[in-house]
Design goal:
Layout: H1 2-15, E1 20-32, E2 53-66, E3 69-86, E4 89-111, E5 114-120, E6 123-135, E7 144-149
Antiparallel strand pairs: 1-2, 2-3, 3-4, 4-5, 4-6, 6-7
């Protein structure tokens, strides 16, 4: 509750101190590719690299502009994952993430709505879980196995 009150006061103070507050939704599709480090245990001498996969992204952007300084933050749901195809087998991993970027920017040029800025800040990302789908003509009668992935110290498949 304290954090909410502090945030509300900060937004109120920023709004009434000649600052501009912006809130904007973001919705889109992105192409993601995750790298994984694997050891060659299949005996074929080749481990395929994961390929690109389309994923969903949705959330909100928040920005406060105070003269030449601006603070940008966001809260997003982001899908990530990969797909690997090898000798007729297909592996698809879909992972669910919550991303929270926070940036402080210094606006160098701000003329007629155009901005040139330099910024830095932390980016926090937390994996909520995911799904793994294995498709192979050699595995099961249906040819497809599905697993739900859990995150945490006591996580199991």
């Amino acid at each position: 509750m304290k954090k909410f009150l502090v945030l509300a006061f900060a937004l109120f103070a920023a709004k009434h101190s000649s600052a501009q507050v912006f809130i904007a939704p973001e919705l889109g599709v992105q192409m993601v590719k995750m790298n994984e480090k694997t050891e060659n245990t299949n005996g074929f001498g080749y481990v395929p690299a994961p390929g690109y996969k389309s994923a969903f992204r949705a959330g909100m952007n928040f920005a406060i502009d105070i003269k030449s300084i601006s603070i940008h933050a966001g809260l997003f749901y982001t899908g990530r994952g990969y797909r690997i195809s090898f000798m007729g087998d297909l592996v698809k991993a879909n992972l669910d993430y919550i991303d929270i970027p926070v940036y402080v920017n210094y606006n160098i040029i701000n003329k007629k709505g155009n901005k040139l800025f330099v910024g830095a800040g932390p980016y926090i990302s937390y994996c909520l879980g995911g799904r793994l789908k294995l498709s192979s003509p050699y595995m099961s009668p249906s040819g497809t196995d599905k697993y739900y992935l859990s995150v945490g110290s006591d996580a199991t498949y």
